[in-house]
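User: We ran a pulldown and think these components assemble together. Before we commit to crystallization trials, I'd like a predicted model of the whole complex to look at. Sequences follow.
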Amino acid sequence: MGTAPASRDVTSYGMGLAAPLALFFLVFFVAPLLQLLWLSLHNDTAGLHWGLGQYLHFLTDPFSLSVLGSTLLLGAEVTLVCLVLGFPIAWLYQRVGPRLQTIIILIVLLPLLTSVVVRTFAWIVILGRQGIINATLQSLGIIDTPLRLLYTQFGVVIALAQVQMPLMTLPLITALGRIDPNLDDASCSLGAGSWRTFFRIVLPLSLPGVIAGCTLTYAAAITAFITQSLIGGGQMLFMPMYLYQQASTLQNWPFASAISIIFLLAVLAVVSVFTTLGRLSRGYGGA
Amino acid sequence: MADAQSGRSLVVDAVTHRYPSGALAVENINLDIKGGEIIALLGPSGCGKTTLLRIIAGFIAQSQGRIIIGDDIVDALPPNRRAVGIVFQNYALFPHLTVTENVGYGLAARGIDKATRQREAQRLLELVQLPSMAERLPRQLSGGQQQRVALARALAIKPSILLLDEPFAALDKNLRLDMQIEVKRLQRVSGITTLIVTHDQEEALSMADRVAVLSHGKLEQFGSPSDVYDRPQTLFVNTFVGSSNRMPGVVVSADRTAAKVRLDAGAEIVARPAGGTLSEGGRVTVCIRPEHLQFVSDETGFAGVVGMSLPLGATVVHEVTTADGSGVKVSQARIGETRALENGAAVRLAPLAPSLANAFPATL
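Assistant: Here's a predicted model for the assembly, 651 residues in total across the polymer chains.
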């Protein structure tokens, strides 16, 4: 009968089609991750003695902990800068005509079309001792000696914020676009000024986008090896570079693995905080 | 009447609005609305009625003209300082706030403390008959309930004018009637000057004290529902409000109150000159409503052939083709055994009374 195919469970098709990707993930993601975990559970570089020594070392070493701390702080700073600068752009996007929207989206996406290395070198040119900022300020007579911008936390935050900005702006644009424009008018007609409308209506309703943007920006900022290393230079050490030194320069693979696992867990902890916030705010999204 | 005292008057004084592209959205609209009146802005979509509503609310600054509420010219005031309550077509309730918070929102914006806000919200929810829904979120309410909340929210700020933008369009037919009665009741109680934007003529005629009919940004007629329905001033009003047969003809003789018109369909009838005086020999369009045509057995009226008969419950509508080939509809009340009309039967039709046929100068 012709009814047989229709009554067949349609979900059974999907599993088979997902198999190639599942296999790919298994071989190139899950397996290396397990290997990493296995390696990190050895006390010596040769991998002969089992134990939690690498973890104990990291967690009792003030230097390692300070690297972890400054990396997580860096992520928080970059996320905050992206949020504060990205929100007005996303807000503006929803209030201009289609032609300006195209221009804004182009400006937002443009960084993604350039290599991270190129963008980072541009920041070196801008922030350097004889860079654009210092040269301008000096020629205007505002400063006498060049400011130290490169190889500072400030420099890294600024450069990373620019590099990761699209990850914040795009979810915000989507979230703000979902808000019924009549709500703005309704709030206004009820006597609320623009600030009240923003804080009581627009911001709460855009929270899903804020949380998505923050999660993406945060995860990308703390793992941004190239920008962190080139702008931060030798003086600033963050987790990705620390990891790289242990693995590549010192060949201490068990310790590097332990760093990876700890870093991974730290990132997961922060991301899960964000997603929990997201779940709590989901009630807002149903506009 | 006490109502008329509490509502403020609204004057739309020669308001014209041009889009940035230069196209006219509304042109030279004049409305003089007394305090406590319910006015319907009626017109097809794109006629400028929503633009006019947004101008009154302050969301759009008109190119020319003034908006006067009570004794104040409000053109310089932003929407949040006009004290105009709006119920949006999709209600625009704040989805993340409870019903109480939604209703109290306008009071919070005025810096009124929480206890007073809650008391006032509760009072209004009782007024709109939703006292038990206070802690729900908007999405947990039905469409009709959401609309009641939207009404309560708009009334909470004690607006001088209440604007309703297609308020019943999203409701199903039975609920719509309930809500129309509800709005009318609330308006009576509060005495607020109310403006309803609608494309639904039945809604406009049943709810409003006066109806303003708009077409292509222009005010076609502003009058009582019976004026608009029985004494339309333009061909547009006659055909848009209610249904109407348009029959072309030539003026035989005319004075100010009556015109003798020879219809192309082949009869001489007396009609009311609706759009000003008519000149002899000029071409006109005569509008006769289906319920104002009757079958006659003598030689008066014009001849036709019955095409189709549709029994619509209380009435039967016959589609009749006239001698000049145009179709007219005739609506007959169903009294007892209405005479069945065979398809193809030859009949003669005439208007019930001269005042029920309106003659307009033919547009080219």
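DSSP finds nine helices and 20 strands in chain B. That may be worth checking against your pulldown data before setting up trials.

User: Thanks, that helps.
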